[in-house]
Amino acid sequence: MKELLDKIVSDGTVLQEDVLKVDSFLTHQIDPKLMSLIGKNFADKYRDKKITKVVTIESSGIAPAVFIGLELDVPVIFARKQKSLTMSTELLTASVHSFTKKQTNEISISTKFLTSEDHVLVVDDFLANGQAALGLVELCSQAGASVEAINIVIEKSFQNGRSLLEEKGYKVDSLARIESLKDNKVHFIK
Ligand code: G4P
Ligand code: NA
Ligand code: NA
């Protein structure tokens, strides 16, 4: 998606050769017009797939996920990293280890929002080691829901997330694929 790649080049910053800072439009401040384009771009590929839910994880997955859900006219669920006060006791849960942050989070979705009737698009802002996405597909499989694809805004292709997910049979669809962040520059996969 050209608009996204242009935005990454103009507004992204490379930190330590493996981290891309995009807090001015995706992970902190959000560019709604860009999110809307992202939503349309993904939704166009899945309009005939009978998607019933979009599933993401808080926090930075929510913005792109909502715009995809808006386009496909389906609800958007975000897995929580902390249990909310009002959450029912019936939860689907999975643990997600972040190699980047060196911490493990228990993520959860209420059983009432995801069932075996659902056909899901999983969405996240970044794909690095694939652990968050794996946790999300685990929640879907606990619910008996099927997963059409895993939609990623920015894939760091030099990390192993995509291959891990593909090995497990999931389709990974990323709008920006980064080959490397060498020399403080973003190199995309052509
Ligand atoms: P993984 O799920 O692919 O294994 O990712 P990893 O544990 O490495 O990433 C942990 C967190 O860091 C995730 O957000 C992920 O979206 C984010 N992240 C990974 N690589 C980058 C990067 O290059 N740039 C930025 N800006 N973020 C990155 P989180 O902390 O779990 O959630 P959130 O609340 O920030 O969305
Ligand atoms: Na994320
Ligand atoms: Na993030």
Automatic annotation (TrEMBL):
<comment type="subunit">
    <text>Homodimer.</text>
</comment>
<comment type="pathway">
    <text>Purine metabolism; XMP biosynthesis via salvage pathway; XMP from xanthine: step 1/1.</text>
</comment>
<dbReference type="GO" id="GO:0006166">
    <property type="term" value="P:purine ribonucleoside salvage"/>
</dbReference>
<dbReference type="GO" id="GO:0046110">
    <property type="term" value="P:xanthine metabolic process"/>
</dbReference>
<dbReference type="InterPro" id="IPR010079">
    <property type="entry name" value="Xanthine_PRibTrfase"/>
</dbReference>
<dbReference type="InterPro" id="IPR000836">
    <property type="entry name" value="PRTase_dom"/>
</dbReference>
<dbReference type="InterPro" id="IPR050118">
    <property type="entry name" value="Pur/Pyrimidine_PRTase"/>
</dbReference>
<feature type="binding site">
    <location>
        <position position="27"/>
    </location>
    <ligand>
        <name>xanthine</name>
    </ligand>
</feature>
<dbReference type="GO" id="GO:0032265">
    <property type="term" value="P:XMP salvage"/>
</dbReference>
<keyword id="KW-0328">Glycosyltransferase</keyword>
<feature type="domain" description="Phosphoribosyltransferase">
    <location>
        <begin position="32"/>
        <end position="153"/>
    </location>
</feature>
<comment type="similarity">
    <text>Belongs to the purine/pyrimidine phosphoribosyltransferase family. Xpt subfamily.</text>
</comment>
<keyword id="KW-0660">Purine salvage</keyword>
<feature type="binding site">
    <location>
        <position position="156"/>
    </location>
    <ligand>
        <name>xanthine</name>
    </ligand>
</feature>
<dbReference type="GO" id="GO:0000310">
    <property type="term" value="F:xanthine phosphoribosyltransferase activity"/>
</dbReference>
<protein>
    <recommendedName>
        <fullName>Xanthine phosphoribosyltransferase</fullName>
        <ecNumber>2.4.2.22</ecNumber>
    </recommendedName>
</protein>
<dbReference type="InterPro" id="IPR029057">
    <property type="entry name" value="PRTase-like"/>
</dbReference>
<keyword id="KW-0963">Cytoplasm</keyword>
<dbReference type="Pfam" id="PF00156">
    <property type="entry name" value="Pribosyltran"/>
</dbReference>
<comment type="function">
    <text>Converts the preformed base xanthine, a product of nucleic acid breakdown, to xanthosine 5'-monophosphate (XMP), so it can be reused for RNA or DNA synthesis.</text>
</comment>
<feature type="binding site">
    <location>
        <begin position="128"/>
        <end position="132"/>
    </location>
    <ligand>
        <name>5-phospho-alpha-D-ribose 1-diphosphate</name>
    </ligand>
</feature>
<dbReference type="GO" id="GO:0005737">
    <property type="term" value="C:cytoplasm"/>
</dbReference>
<feature type="binding site">
    <location>
        <position position="20"/>
    </location>
    <ligand>
        <name>xanthine</name>
    </ligand>
</feature>
<keyword id="KW-0808">Transferase</keyword>
